[in-house]
Design brief:
Layout lengths: L1 H13 L3 H22 L24 H13 L5 H15 L8 H11 L5 H13 L7 H8 L7 H11 L3 H11 L6 H13 L3 H8 L5 H15 L3 H7 L10 H21 L10 H13 L1 H13 L9 H22 L5 H7 L2 H26 L6 H27 L1 H27 L8 H21 L9 H24 L1 H25 L8
Length: 536
């Protein structure tokens, strides 16, 4: 017993010692960097990592030389399929632009395609044909001949699909991918054809493909969903949705997304402890996570309804972008999450415990974010996806936690808190929409620092509420130590995984922005939590 008490005292002291905390964080991050350095020399690639779209668009473009260097790295990776090489060419062309043809950058890319050991002779001709076509209105004759031959040359129709897709001609692009799908192993091409027919709302083509045995196992539920949407059969849409929600193609990213969600669940449980752990109702926190997962269902339904009935599309202008992200993304996500706080509100209001209201509502947001990340990463992975690993979970937790807290207060005291809740809900919806707009709306991308400011203000408000309402008994391992260890570990794991795909240099560049946002979140936590002995 004495030895047990000794270890408890030791852990209590160490996990509140600023020097120990910074040594722990530094050690975890150093270990992550060391693993990333080692893994780039190993002949492995992150398992089941899907084809990557790595070349940035013109709206987020950096130095063309950096993009060509990135393209060289892609060509040097023998694990990337030929289709992935073709997919990045339009983005590279848009970045370099025809106006820069005289400086030799376009010829440099052409020479890279000619000299690459990544291709056989046929693939080299197809890649060159696509590259030369990108500067013209129509694809070059050699590429067309290869695609229309009987039988067609492998990958020629994929290249045509890439070309027409870059011209936003979804019909011709889908037809090209469908012709490529005649090859037995061209599953990805058949999937592309279905996705583009879906995007183009070509119901006749979808009906035709649905009768083809090669297509029925690919996206059959997606086809049924699209047909139900076209008929405005909303009841059928509602019940088909759960069958189409999760499509896992990359287990590596899904595991990381699941680990991120698990860390925040453990953090929420510890943050929700009252003066006595026996008084904490962990079942209501777990129920919140489960309800958050379920909130994806009506959110997706709202996406479809807004797109179909409201004609709410992202667009390219500032006005259309803000309308889409505020009235679309922000409104539907925050509203649906709060709707799933309501089933737990009777228990929360009866207890009159603001800490439980805050943490339970945050758990609803966490369940939403965790499932959305698994769903999101399971379908795709790109350099634009990395910030979600480290920021999306807590963003949803903080937004729903604050909104749910005031919702419960409004239910308990409607006259005093009702107007406050409506005002706070409107602010959260606006902040959420604006946060996404800074990443996606072309006119705002250059001001992307604004998204970081919104994120930090949201972090501050959540931790401020947590500090005000959390009055817990002394813990063996402090909440600060668990928080810092978890965030550091997730950052290291993300760096290692991205390094396994991109290499260390590109991984460091890619993870820099998200790591900075995470660092500022950590600063807000250390600044607000009363148990912390870290002077900031």
């Amino acid at each position: 017993m004495a030895q047990q008490l000794h270890w408890k005292s030791f852990l209590k002291a160490q996990t509140r010692n600023p020097r120990f905390l910074w040594q722990m964080v530094s050690g975890i991050l150093a270990l992550g960097i060391a693993c990333a350095v080692v893994i780039q020399f190993l002949p492995i690639r992150a398992s089941n990592a899907p084809d990557l779209v790595l070349i940035p668009s013109t709206s987020t473009a950096g130095d063309p030389i950096d993009s060509i260097s990135m393209f060289e790295s892609i060509l040097a990776d023998s694990e990337i399929e030929f289709s992935g090489i073709l997919d990045v060419l339009p983005g590279l062309w848009d970045l370099l632009g025809a106006e820069k043809a005289n400086d030799g950058t376009l010829d440099r890319v052409r020479n890279l395609l000619v000299s690459s050991d990544h291709f056989d002779i046929s693939q080299r001709q197809i890649a060159l044909g696509l590259w030369e076509s990108l500067g013209q209105e129509f694809p070059v004759s050699g590429l067309v001949q290869s695609a229309t031959a009987e039988p067609p040359v492998r990958w020629a129709n994929w290249a045509l699909g890439v070309f027409w897709h870059s011209r936003e001609d979804l019909d011709d692009a889908a037809s090209a991918y469908e012709r490529e799908g005649r090859f037995e192993d061209a599953i990805a091409a058949r999937r592309k054809a279905v996705e583009l027919y879906l995007a183009n709302e070509d119901l006749a083509a979808l009906e035709r493909l649905n009768r083809d045995p090669r297509y029925t196992k690919i996206l059959d539920q997606q086809i049924a969903l699209e047909l139900a949407i076209a008929r405005r059969d909303w009841w059928a849409v509602w019940w088909i949705l759960p069958q189409t929600e999760l499509d896992l193609t990359s287990w590596g990213t899904c595991i990381i997304a699941a680990l991120t969600g698990l860390f925040w669940i453990l953090f929420s449980f510890q943050a929700g402890l009252g003066l006595s752990p026996r008084q904490a109702r962990f079942w209501i926190y777990l129920s919140g996570v489960g309800l958050g997962v379920l909130s994806i269902w009506p959110t997706t339904f709202a996406v479809i309804y807004q797109d179909t009935v409201w004609q709410l599309e992202e667009g390219t202008t500032l006005a259309s972008g803000l309308r889409f992200y505020i009235l679309g993304v922000g409104l539907r996500e925050e509203l649906c999450k709060l709707l799933f706080v309501i089933p737990l509100a009777p228990w929360l209001v009866r207890r009159r415990d603001d800490l439980e209201m805050l943490i339970t509502s945050a758990c609803v947001g966490l369940g939403f974010a965790a499932f959305e990340n698994i769903q999101y990463f399971g379908a795709s992975f790109s350099t634009s996806s990395i910030p979600r690993y480290l920021t999306a979970n807590f963003f949803h937790m903080a937004a729903t936690g604050i909104g749910g807290l005031w919702l419960c207060r409004a239910i308990r005291l409607p006259r005093e808190c009702g107007s406050h809740f409506l005002a706070i809900f409107g602010i959260i919806v606006f902040a959420h929409g604006l946060y996404d707009s800074f990443f996606a709306v072309p006119a705002l991308v250059q001001y992307s620092l604004g998204s970081m400011i919104i994120y930090i203000l949201l972090c501050y408000q959540f931790f401020h509420e947590l500090r005000h309402h959390r009055k817990s008994a002394p813990e063996t391992i402090s909440l600060t130590a668990n928080f810092l260890a978890g965030v550091s570990l997730l950052t290291s794991i993300s760096l290692v995984y991205v390094t396994a795909i991109l290499g260390l240099r590109l991984a460091l560049i890619t993870c820099l922005g998200p790591a900075l946002s995470t660092g500022l979140m950590v600063y807000m936590f250390l600044r607000e939590m009363p148990e912390s002995m870290v002077q900031v």
